[in-house]
Amino acid sequence: MNGMLPALVCGLLWSVMWSVYIFLILKFYPFSMLHEYPKDIQAAAAIEKPTAAQEQAAKRFGAVGGLIIFGVLLAFGLLRFHSEQTSFLQVLKYIFLIAMTWNAVDLLVMDWLIVCTVTPKWIVLKGTEGCRGYHDYFFHFKGFLLGCVYTAIMALLFSGIDYAVLRLLIWK
Q1: Helices and strands in the chain, H and E counts
Q2: Taking the alpha carbons of 133, 135, 139, 144 in that order, is the dihedral positive or negative?
Q3: pLDDT for 13-67, tens place per residue?
Q4: Where are the alpha helices (DSSP H) in 82-132?
Q5: Does pTM top 0.85 for this prediction?
Q6: CA–CA distance from 100 to each of 11, 66, 120, 142 (Å)?
Q7: What is the pLDDT of residues 87-99, one digit of tens each?
Q8: How far is CA 64 from CA 13, 94, 100, 151, in A?
Q9: Tally of structural domains, the chain
Q10: Which member of 41, 54, 79, 134 lies 3.0 to 4.6 Å from 37 by CB, making a disulfide possible if both were Cys?
Q11: Which domain holds residue 107?
């Protein structure tokens, strides 16, 4: 448990970052998240076609937000292991636990609690009031399972980067 606690704390911090990022996208660029909603919501959504400027702003926000979020994930691994030579497997387990914490928080808090159970007005897209997709727990569970695959791939990639930086630049 001793090695897991720092990863869980980082995972919760990373989950807060992701949650804020997604909230901001939903608030300012909901058109860019429409594909993440169930089909009935996508069909009923009365979202105006974004202007070229809005699309550019959404892309810039997504790029900057993504760089920050994934930069923090890299930093978590580097900060944790900078003074302790360890194996690639240890770095992988650490990064995987952080990323999987977010995947679980996304399912349990963001999707099942906020979207499916509470369904606050800021989640409901214009024209989709009353759509059954907002209460489709299985839709979100399938997303979680897909997220498990993405999490494993992402953890391999980011652990590899962290481990290479640690071995080549820090542990010399």
Answers
A1: 5, 0
A2: positive
A3: 999 999 999 999 999 999 999 999 999 999 999 998 999 999 999 999 999 999 9
A4: 88-105
A5: yes
A6: 8, 17, 26, 15
A7: 999 999 999 999 9
A8: 18, 25, 22, 20
A9: 1
A10: 41
A11: 4-170
